[in-house]
């Protein structure tokens, strides 16, 4: 029993968007992180199509579980507990993951934890950088969310500090990439194009940074529109679009606001650690600027490696493992999936 509590072998499922993720951890040690993505099936639509994602999860599920087991060198009989994203995310996609996880839990007669996707994005960093410090600030930035959170305890006490009032940060990257004709998903393509550009070439707006604006909320919709209008004006005038400069200036506007507000959140909550997660945390400029500004403020930055930042099953397994170790009560087998699950609900019963 002690061994189980200290280093449980946990199978984690993630299907909130277009990645079918199955991860296996023992304690805080990552054993397998199998991901099957349907991103290419969505590319021609310029965004994730929910029904296509659900179908792809269904097809990928069993082979991805088998790949994870084989990568980890374990069998289903070895598994101590199961964790699965209960929400937030695409309703149909969540259901496929929950149904699969519940079937394995029932067949293996093991406890199951229906967990919050955002808490999993935070907890994954334990696999890389060890136990989370008490009371850190987490900034989660992806295609679906942009939030600042105060995290006294990732298994039960996650407090929202601020969030986007319109588009998520990754959504802004994806939409601007479309305006620039770069393809989908746009984040990595803009990141790459921006390397050749001047971040100060165009002064794009910094959303919600006025004196009367909510200091820890984000807004990226105005920025996206500003880029689209700027490009349209040039096109109408018959000018060539300086792609790298637009990409670099847009990216700078996003990461300037993200890092400014993240540091402010740390100062206001007295946290000396800032954790950054979600797909946009893979952005090279965000990583550099966050380090730079945090160092000046005496704050330590923790960012998981890129493939642990984007959606994956290992992050869900990491949170499951922490829940087992802290002796938290598992979910009932009939727990609901919740596409708009609040961040304060870390485990659904
Ligand atoms: O966490 P994630 O894989 O899925 C969601 O839960 O949304 O994040 C995907 C998002 C996409 O919007 C993608 O464009 C963005 O993360 N992204 C990036 C980079 N890599 C992925 N954004 C900016 N720079 C990157 N290098
Ligand atoms: Zn995510």
UniProtKB/TrEMBL annotation:
Keyword Transferase: yes
Coiled coil regions, renumbered to chain: none
GO molecular function, one term: tRNA N(6)-L-threonylcarbamoyladenine synthase activity
Cofactor mode of binding and number, as noted: Binds 1 Fe(2+) ion per subunit.
UniProt binding sites for Fe cation: 117, 121, 311
Domain Gcp-like: 30-317
HAMAP family with a match to the protein in the record: TsaD
Family according to the record: Belongs to the KAE1 / TsaD family.
Protein name: tRNA N6-adenosine threonylcarbamoyltransferase
Species this chain originates from: Catenulispora pinistramenti
